[in-house]
Design brief:
Elements lengths: L1 H4 L13 H26 L5 H13 L3 H31 L11 H20 L12 E2 L5 E2 L1 H27 L8 H28 L5 H23 L3 H5 L8 H21 L3 H23 L11 H11 L2 H4 L2 H27 L9 H26 L9 H19 L9 E13 L11 E10 L2 H6 L1 E8 L4 E5 L1 E4 L2 E3 L4 E4 L3 E8 L2 E9 L10 E2 L3 E5 L1 E2 L1 H4 L9 H31 L17 H8 L12
Antiparallel strand pairs: 1-2, 3-4, 3-13, 4-8, 4-9, 5-6, 5-10, 7-8, 10-11, 11-12, 11-14
Helix pairs in contact: 2-5, 3-4, 4-5, 4-7, 4-11, 5-6, 6-7, 6-19, 7-8, 7-19, 8-10, 8-11, 10-11, 10-12, 10-14, 10-15, 11-12, 12-14, 14-15, 15-16, 15-19
């Protein structure tokens, strides 16, 4: 069968990496994994105490058990490395196009090492606890003398799904062609693997604190509080990556997705931060996120010379959550806290993001999508906030105190799934006709050869005149974009007459530049080509605007994802999508069960009391005093 047999062929770059690079990459990954497993065996067999020595040193600084300290440091360091690699990789692709293979792209190495580091952290958390060691009331029995933290299994599982996304990405390219989108199924495996790993690291932090006991110094107490800021901040960073295509202005999905994603991410992370970390934790998480994104943008833009992405800011949303927490009647209930925060995020937070998009984002938000964007943002922020609140209750050992925890969890998840269904209801049909005219043509660079990417490069002004004026009036985000010519140029066109729009700055065409005029019309994302180079590796013919031409708007995925194969049978495509996304869903449910286990097997009385840590909510503290202890109390050592 042609589709299946392609796995064994040396495919062109548009449909998978060269076999030699696959062999080398497999050897590297296998060697790294083997080294991790050998190190784990040496530790468990007592042949080395190096890991234990390092863990004790870090644990004394952090105020957590040695078996949790080292994996926490490696885990967060690996997340930072992978995060840098992802933003670098996206910038390389939007600036220069496809790479010859996974090993030919320098940005892939920090991603690979970061995912491998997360797996290493999970393995170490699994094997570091000594024989007969007290690991806490939520420990999992592996052998007669071996107990491991629940978080270790969760972290290994989450890291594995992210790690597998890397090789499976090439398999996907061979079967279906390159899906040039951040939302490709295997790309989502890596993103969700990282997001879920962040939650697993929070679990490991809590289990490590419980086994260690109360902090012995003010420094340990402060560092424990800091982890309650750093972890939600990492969730903001990883979660906002789901809206990353809008950061470069080459989004392929309805504009409704962006406010909904940002509302859900901020609702989850900031409510989680405030409910777990106490006063100031939500604002601290937003500040940490901002600093981290700014540093990565500088490295990618100034250091590596690639297009610097725009970035959303979450200070207003953080202040809203902190303000809600000041009202005792709202603070006392997970649902009321999440509802008040969600309403604030979906209105005031939405208003700030709308204002910020007008000058800091490639694609400004427009009034035409305020409904249903605002009500869906409120619903998304509220539902995600409920989940964030339940997560914090689990980590604080207070989940038993929430009598409606099951219905809140199930209901919030159902709401988020429904919202995703509404936002994802995209129409892929064609649109009206438009006449595009090139003027003010200026040669920037002469042709350098006869290849498809070696043609003359010119700066032009693009004018688009719609045959259906009403469609133009109803359209949103009418713009012209050029990318993969060494940068990205995104220009929102100005209206110069009924149904007529013109770019406001020179647009590069020719060479390797891909240039299209695009719009959103209702639930359709539409585009017409202005200039597209031929690409023999796909293969696909080029398109050149002779100066003036009339075309019909088409589904823009046909232009932005030219590498996708159109000869794949539906019986293979749909099961592959279900398999990958279903796997992500199962891992997410499994992590939710693990977090609930962490919160139900203990009560607040089992929690260490940081002498200068986060300020507990009065309502939660009062409830904690009436709770009965469950499970074995940890030793004071």
């Amino acid at each position: 069968m042609p589709v299946l047999s392609s796995l064994a062929q040396i495919s062109p770059p548009a449909a998978g990496a060269p076999v030699t690079q696959i062999i080398i990459g497999t050897a590297i990954a296998g060697s790294m994994t083997g080294a991790v497993l050998i190190l784990a065996w040496l530790h468990r067999s007592g042949r080395t105490t190096l890991l234990d020595t390092i863990g004790r040193w870090i644990g004394h600084i952090q105020g957590v058990a040695p078996w949790a300290a080292l994996p926490l440091v490696i885990g967060f360091g690996s997340l930072g490395l992978a995060f840098l690699g992802v933003y670098w990789d996206i910038s390389l692709h939007v600036d220069k196009g496809r790479d010859p293979g996974p090993l030919a792209n320098a940005a892939h190495y920090p991603i690979l090492f970061g995912l491998q580091g997360l797996f290493l952290a999970g393995v170490l958390a699994l094997v570091l606890p000594p024989k007969n060691a007290y690991v806490g009331p939520t420990a999992v029995k592996v052998g007669t003398t071996w107990r491991t933290p629940t978080a270790a299994i969760a972290l290994m599982s989450c890291a594995t799904i992210g790690y597998l996304g890397f090789p499976l990405d090439d398999v996907w390219h061979r079967l279906f062609g390159q899906d040039v989108t951040l939302w490709g199924p295997t790309h989502l495996m890596m993103i969700f693997g990282a997001v879920l790993s962040i939650l697993a690291l929070a679990m490991l932090q809590v289990e490590g604190e419980r086994a260690y006991g109360k902090p012995k110094t003010s420094g340990q107490a402060w560092r424990r509080k800091w982890m309650r800021v750093q972890n939600p901040a990492a969730m903001l960073i990883a979660g906002s990556l789901l809206a990353g295509e809008w950061d470069w202005g080459i989004q392929q999905y309805l504009m409704l997705w962006r406010p909904v994603i940002l509302a859900a991410v901020t609702g989850l992370a900031l409510v989680y931060a405030r409910r777990w970390g106490g006063r100031g934790a939500a604002f601290g998480a937003a500040l940490f996120y901002c600093i981290a994104r700014f540093i990565v943008n500088l490295i990618v833009g100034e250091g590596f010379g690639q297009t610097m992405p725009s970035m959303p800011l979450f200070f207003v949303e953080a202040l809203i959550v902190e303000g809600v927490a000041m009202v005792a009647v709202l603070r006392a209930s997970t649902f009321r806290f999440a509802l008040a925060s969600g309403i604030g995020i979906g209105t005031l937070g939405f208003g700030f993001q709308y204002w910020w998009s007008q000058f800091a984002m490639p694609t400004p938000w427009e009034p035409d999508f305020l409904f249903p964007a605002i009500p869906l943002s409120i619903a998304a922020a509220t539902a995600a906030g409920v989940l964030g609140g339940l997560l914090a209750q689990s980590l604080r050992g207070e989940l038993r105190l929430e009598p409606q925890r099951r219905w809140l969890g199930y209901g919030s998840t159902a709401v988020l799934v429904a919202i995703a269904g509404i936002a994802g209801n995209q129409d892929y049909s064609s649109g009206p006709a438009v006449t595009t005219t090139l003027s003010n043509v200026k040669t920037v660079s002469p042709a350098t050869g006869t290849g498809p990417f070696d043609g003359e490069i010119r700066d032009v002004t693009v004018t688009a005149k719609f045959t259906d004026v009403d469609a133009a009036e109803r359209g949103m985000s009418i713009m012209t974009i050029s990318w993969q010519g060494g940068g990205v140029v995104s220009n929102v066109m100005e209206k110069i007459g009924p149904g007529e729009y013109r770019t406001t700055e020179p647009i590069p065409v020719g060479g390797s530049w891909k240039t299209v005029t695009r719009m959103q019309l209702g639930r359709r994302m539409l585009a017409v080509p202005v200039q597209l180079p031929a690409d023999p590796a796909i293969p696909v013919e080029g398109h050149t605007n002779p100066g003036t031409e009339t075309q019909q708007f088409k589904n823009e995925l046909l232009l932005l994802q030219r590498e996708r194969r159109d000869d794949v049978p539906a019986w293979l495509w749909l099961p592959a999508i279900i398999l990958v996304l279903g796997g992500i869903g199962l891992f997410t449910v499994g992590l939710g069960v693990s977090v609930a286990r962490l919160g139900l097997r203990v009560t607040p009385e089992d929690e260490p009391e940081p002498s200068s840590g986060p300020t507990p909510d009065p309502a939660a503290s009062a409830a904690a005093k009436g709770a009965s202890a469950v499970g074995r109390p940890h030793p004071a050592s």
